[in-house]
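The authors assume throughout that readers already know how a fold can be written as discrete tokens. For illustration, here is how one protein appears when written out as sequence plus structure tokens.
>
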Amino acid sequence: MEDGPERRDLLAKRAAITSRIEQNLLKLTDSTEPQPAAALHSDLHEISMKRLEAAWKIEYTDPASNTDRLHRHLTESYENWTKAEGFYAPYFAVFQSSGHGKSRLLKELCTSRQIPHLYICFRPAQSSGYPLRTRDIADFLTRDPSQNKWDAFLRAVLFLFCDVTKHESDSGIAYGMWENYKDTTKSLEAMICTSAKNLLESSGIVSLDHLGPSPFLFVIDEARELVTATDKFGLSCFRMLRRGLSTYGMGIFAILMDTLASIANFTPTVENDPSLRLTGKNNLLPPFHLVVTVDMFSEPPAPLGADQIRKELEPHNLVTKGRILWASTVLGRKRASRSNNVSTDKQLLDETDLHDWKFIVELAAVKLLGGQIQWYADSLSRVAALSVLSARAQVSIAPTSDSSALSVGSHLGTCVSISECQDAVFSMYPSEPAVAAGAFHVVWAHPDPKLRQKESMNNYAKLLSHLQTSLVQGIVDAGQCGELVARLLLNIAWDFCVESVEKFYSMISLEDFLNNLIGSERLDRAKKALDDKTILGAQLCFTHFIPISYVPNEQDLIKLMSRGAAAICQRNQV
């Protein structure tokens, strides 16, 4: 489509609005070429793996009843598949950002509800995540994939399950028999693959109707590889799996888990899915994204005074705020280092020190950048740059843009809603002290204190360049641009007050903050106009902004301060 006068006028206005960002922020830097940002610890991958493995084994807590809600979703989805017409295959996707506990949630669902299942993880072998790749099965299915191979694999698993459980109709008893077999059998993966190879030339399906209302569940973790692995004709492993599942009626179901950038890859629209167009079965079971694990280890604060706020801003309390990954990683490290694990979770978390906190901050920084352990400001992608800014200033990314889904898929954004057609992901960055500190660390990671301010402003300039381009292209909402600029400037002023991760959650006097925000000369003029100068000694702490939908009272604001958050009130709120 050609750019008409109206289109050109719109682009010109948008560019004029967004240029204010550069005008305000580039004044803080110079034209010197930026130097490479400091790398994080080289052993971060190894340390993180050990802690995540230990964290996987800690006692599971579920105050938000995630297992109940997921079980209801599974039950309703299975009933819709078996009783309703028009559904293409018995599966749905679980979609949420990294660190919210999706894998552990599925494990607890199957264990607590005694659901017979097979867990398969397609995580890349070099990934820093946990659980590890189910190597034998994942390699067998994705190397030279074919529909016959996937069909044979499904039959091999179900044949083995029926043989082990002797067609037991009580799903609880069948679950116990199957779990005992999995625990006591060596090389189970290799056995399944060998059986599947022997079944490649055969056909047919295995009936599991005897299981009744509880199906045999295939749990597919890190399922994005199924989308990218294809045969010579371009048919993906995901579509091969769906075709194999669709031939079964009762007794079998699959759950696909990932932080995949586009949920539509697993639940595409009819227009984008040739399988749905050909069969006439255009309904797909809805995804599940309501994995709520925020502040699970954080105790609700009582009415707070100044001393209590300072305690809330100490490392042992900060790690409990936000997604479960931060606290569980600390717990995993503490438990892994002790032979006697009689201490409670709270006792172990209370031992969190600055060393633990700095590791969590670096882990958050790596995840914000999509897994980059070393980076140059010039090398950051647009989505990484927007994520670093959003984690503290709440940049509004358009839900229909790829950047919104990518922020959830690879950059710690949280999915709060998915459109009915799965073509729009509504994402945001809730209040997470570790993520805000990680965003700060990305910008201020230069090891030389003498160069840190200068290099951090160069880094900010690169981030803002991405933001300006995104505003012009409509990837970021250009509404309330002035408010966004104000939040960015306030964040930078805070950064100049602290300049290090160690001091990031310190209490700062209003006078010190204003001195960094407007400069000493303007502050001196403002002081002369003040009748009561004691207000300048007031203490504050805000490292990031979050939107709120209520009218806050004094205690609400204190609670926000106790996690280093400032409120973005609703427009025209009084």
